[in-house]
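Repro:
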Amino acid sequence: MQLLDTLVARAIPWAPRALIHKISRRYIAGDNLTDALHRVRQLNAQGFTVTLDVLGETISTLPQAQATADTYMEVLHAVHDQGLQANISIKPSAFGLLLEAQQCEQLIARVLDTAERHRNSVCLDMEDASCTQKEIDLFMRLRARFGNVGLALQAYLLRTYQDLEPLLHKAHTLRICKGIYREDRTHLVQDAWRDRSAINEHFLKHVERCFDAGSFVGIATHDAALIASIVKTARKHGIDPGRFEFQMLLGVCEPLRDQLLDMGFKVRVYVPFGKDWYGYSTRRLNENPRIAGYIAKALIGL
C-alpha cells in the first residue's frame, strides 16, 4: 500500500478539485471562523486544547498583510469572547516578512498585544530555510517586548542545534517539528532528504535539551515510534507532564492522539481553516503519502 500511496501522491496535481475538497474536510475545520470555532468547542469538550491557523500564507502586497493581521485579531477576540481554549499560530511571511520587514514586525506586535490583553499566546511558525534567520531575529526582537510569543524549530535542519541554545531561556514556548519544506540537502541532517525517520534522533535530542533547560516544549509529530521514545525519556527523567505537550494536526492519527490524552498528557490539535483549502490540502498530501491513500480509496469506491 505504501507504493500505491506514493504513486497517488505524485498524481495529486491531476486529481479533481472536488475530490481534494472532499478529503480536505477531514483536515480543515471549514471556510470561515464560525466553522473553526465550532470545531474548537468540540475538541475542547473532549479535553484537547487547540491552535488555530488561518490558511493562505502566500501574499504579494502589504494590504494583504494588513488583512491577515486583522483576521487573526478577529480570531483572538472570538476565542476570548467564547471562553475557548485556543491560541494561534502565524507565518511571518503572511504578515509581509519578505516584503517589508518593519511593517511585518509592527503587525505581529499588534497581534501579540491583542493576545496579551486576552491572556493568550502566539507561536511563530518556521518556514523555509531562506526565512529561518529572519524569523529567529524577528522572534528575539518581539520576545524582548512580549512574554506570550513562542517559536517553532525544525529538527531536519542542521542549524537547529545552534539555533536552539540561545532560545532555550527566551521562549514562552518552543515548538519542535520535523520540517516539511523542500530544502537543499546541505541544510539537512544526514539522510533526512530520503528518509524522514532519520530525523527522529535529532528531534529527540532537541526535545531532551528543552527538558534539560526547563523550557516548555510543544512536540509536533505524528510519528508513533518517536512519540514512544519521548514518553519513555520523559518518564525516565521524571519530567513533569505540565512542561510539555503533544501537538497533532486535525484529522491525523486520531487514535494515537486520543491515546495520549487518555495517558494523561496534554494534547493540542492544530486546526486550520479558511478559503485556501486546496493549497493546504495538496501540501499535506504531498508531505504524507499515507494520507494520499484516501484518494485511491475514494476513486475505487472503498
